[in-house]
Amino acid sequence: MVVIRYKSGLRLNRHLLPETNTARAPSNMNFSGIKIRSGKNEIILDPKRLDRIQERQQLEAAVKPVDEIAPQILRALRDKRGFSVIRLGDAEILTLAQDTVFTTRVNVPAWGNLMAELCHDPLLGTGDNNEVLRWRDMMHMSGIHYPDLNARDLLIQAVKTADIVGIPVRNRPGRSHAHLKILEGFQTVLLEIFKTLNLNYSNMQLADSALHYLLFSTGWLHKILFPGKYPQICRQYSFPEGYKSKILLVGNRAGELADVMAPHGIRISGIIKPVNMSNINDTMAAISNHSFDIALIGAGVAAKILCSSTATSMNRVTIDAGHLFDLLIDDYRHLKYQVARIPYEWML
Length: 348
Prior knowledge:
Layout: E1 4-5, E2 11-12, E3 34-37, E4 41-44, H1 47-61, E5 63-64, H2 66-79, E6 83-87, H3 90-97, H4 111-119, H5 135-141, H6 149-161, E7 164-167, H7 177-196, E8 206-208, H8 211-217, H9 220-225, H10 231-237, E9 246-251, H11 254-261, E10 267-272, H12 280-288, E11 294-298, H13 300-314, E12 317-320, H14 324-332
Parallel strand pairs: 5-8, 6-7, 6-12, 7-8, 9-10, 9-11, 11-12
Antiparallel strand pairs: 1-2, 3-4
Helix pairs in contact: 1-7, 3-5, 3-6, 3-7, 4-7, 6-13, 11-14, 12-13
């Protein structure tokens, strides 16, 4: 069987990773290397590492801007057609990597070294303040009790059926060089996951995993919630004047978000909480009992599964809103997108 064999001796069922020391480029290389812009200039000679860089560049080139995605949401809303937007951050990629890219026979922080080997980058590092050591805690905060292969499989299905999949990109203003390096590692892991799942990302619609913030800060979310307030939107998408979407809020902080949204005229059709990986079936049953146009879901890894399932089974628009719940509840207490700031420091 063809396997991944890491230098540590750990193996997984994938293609062979040659055990090449990439810390020093061979002296007989016939090319001059390249410079990459990541806060520091690096001359890279290792051909395998160059391949990884090119793969990541191609992945980012496939990411669609928010101005291409938001109109699709409006069309789905108009047509009463299912449409799901999910996002993959560190916890989700780590969840998907369980026994697909990295073995669960070791604790999650050990994956940091394996990630560096996978990237052929001995200088990949451990992120901001040694964030590798917090990876398992990140998974736990997102509802994953490692190892959890059932959650992995549910998340795989969500990725396969989602209409939009947000992924981490290097456009992270203010983030450190150390963080951007580890983000590159997550991109490479995600590419390996796609290969394992036989997913061709060129056939997927990819977005920046900051899409929930981008929808809000650009004003698109306001247009999606209140399409009838915008004459151009009414004309283009055939919404009646004054039309408001019916919004279902799903997540542990859904009630608090309703308190923020209701005074601004949001048409809230229901609130569902608590939500976690252990009550997904009950949550889906509760969602099916509500009449709504859009579900905004903030519930860690469970949100991705609920978004895809709801869009597929109920023909509704679903948006994985994530920490946008927290931003609106704790920081803003309003819907004035004109003054919004994207909290890149919260993100992978």
